[in-house]
Automatic annotation (TrEMBL):
<dbReference type="Pfam" id="PF04020">
    <property type="entry name" value="Phage_holin_4_2"/>
</dbReference>
<keyword id="KW-0812">Transmembrane</keyword>
<protein>
    <submittedName>
        <fullName>Putative membrane protein</fullName>
    </submittedName>
</protein>
<keyword id="KW-0472">Membrane</keyword>
<dbReference type="InterPro" id="IPR007165">
    <property type="entry name" value="Phage_holin_4_2"/>
</dbReference>
<feature type="transmembrane region" description="Helical">
    <location>
        <begin position="53"/>
        <end position="77"/>
    </location>
</feature>
<keyword id="KW-1133">Transmembrane helix</keyword>
<feature type="transmembrane region" description="Helical">
    <location>
        <begin position="89"/>
        <end position="110"/>
    </location>
</feature>
<feature type="transmembrane region" description="Helical">
    <location>
        <begin position="28"/>
        <end position="46"/>
    </location>
</feature>
Length: 115
């Protein structure tokens, strides 16, 4: 149940960011939900592999290379979901940073409601 609620909150965050950012577009609510689920899967499977493979670069850049990895994961999701589009690396980077911020805010609100 908690996973489903987090996916719905992530889909809402994707929809809000698609409205705010001109370089990101989502066609429908279903596409936003698919993007949220795919991002969860990619973050669980692909991101740890990329972090391990790029560990020296990540250490040298003091962790800032993780932003590039997040943008790459957004672009991978763009490739697989037909109703989701991101216009380049810069928009993927901005989208990933803002998505992380929105998710943190939404998840903290979710935790406050349970307390």
């Amino acid at each position: 149940m908690k996973f489903l609620l987090k996916m719905i909150l992530s889909a809402i965050a994707v929809l809000v960011l698609a409205e705010i950012l001109p370089g990101v577009n989502v066609d429908s609510y279903v596409s936003a939900l698919i993007v949220a689920v795919l991002l969860a899967v990619l973050n669980a499977v692909v991101k740890p592999l990329l972090v391990i493979l790029t560990l020296p670069v990540t250490i040298v850049t003091l962790g800032l290379f993780l932003l590039v990895i997040n943008a790459a994961i957004i672009l991978i999701a763009d490739h697989f979901v037909s109703g989701f589009g991101v216009n380049g690396w810069l928009w993927a980077l901005i989208f990933s940073v803002l998505l992380s911020v929105f998710q943190s805010i939404l998840y903290s609100i979710l935790k406050k409601d349970k307390s």
